[in-house]
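Let us work through a complete example step by step.
Step 1: write down the sequence.
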Amino acid sequence: PVMDDSLGRPQRGGPMMPIYRPRFDEWEIAIPCVFDESFLSMDSVVNLFNEAGFRNGVGSFRPQNGGPHGTFQVKSVQAVKGNK
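Step 2: predict the structure and record it as tokens.
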């Protein structure tokens, strides 16, 4: 990670002060996801994750909060059939 430093307000209405956060330029995570295939296709679920990564993101300075960081996209999909 890279240490990011910027000015911000840790509490609404509070004074501006330095904020230090780790920044991961490259990251990945495996997320198990169970869904009803009779309701949503695998492609639809992947599209929902990609839209969430583009529009919302993760972390404090993500697009949903007006920032440029925290976006993500689906890298790969591994389908595993489970017992019903």
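Step 3: interpret the result. The mean pLDDT is 87.
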